[in-house]
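Q: Sequence in, structure out?
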Amino acid sequence: MPSIPEAEVWFDEYVRGHGHDPGQPEPDLGVVKNPDRLITWNGNQLVCEIKQFTSSPFSRLLGTARVGALNVSEVLNPVRRKVGRAAEQLKPLAGSGWPLVIVLADPIGVGVPLSTQEIIWALYGDPVIRLTIPEEGVDGSHPPEHSVGRNSRLLRNHQYVSAVVALRRGSHRRDWQTACWERLKVAQPNLDLTDFNAIARLGDAVDQAEAAALANNEIEEGHYLCADVFTATSETAVALPRNVFDGPRDTRWDYIAETEQYTRTRGNG
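A: Exactly. Output:
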């Protein structure tokens, strides 16, 4: 029997870790190609197709002696391809009544960009800056508006997909380090972030605080899994219930049609 991909291991661990049932791999739902999971979360059943990354968009630049560059589309294309393939696999279940969810994970750490902003760009469009130029002879100026183009709109192309979920593995110790860094930085309002020596001193202070906290067993060891959820842009997809993927570190981003923007409606990611 083939081994379960690491992304699916992560997903099962994440679901069980929040007290819910991940179900069996590839349940028979009466379609030619079975999806990866039919999970149960707070009484809700969801069909999930899980995609793992095996290569980085930056790999072609490695080992070269020259300076290389990638445009935004090249960086985001691995996410777009995985979402597109997962959506096609879920298509036979459109109209089934189940929410259809695409799950993305990078358990082997190939370096695919999966921050919340990068996922939004991948789903909706490359980042753009809009400038409003006043007519000649008209006073007034407008600040640049950061937005997205419409060269992707993946979820609009797959009206039956309920959500895309990016699964992340976090570290309690790394969270402590980040919080300590921010706390010490705020305590120095005149800190010059362009001064290398000042930044080095701040780093030393974090290291000293961490050593003391470890000696006093004040830092929790280990890792955790959490999810960033991006709901459908489609009004015809089965809505993703709000009481799923609702762990204490999970975030939810809902698409607001009136503003054509994703807005965080849960969590602090």
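The beta strands are 37-41, 44-52, 100-105, 127-130, 145-148, 163-171, 223-231, 251-256, 261-266.
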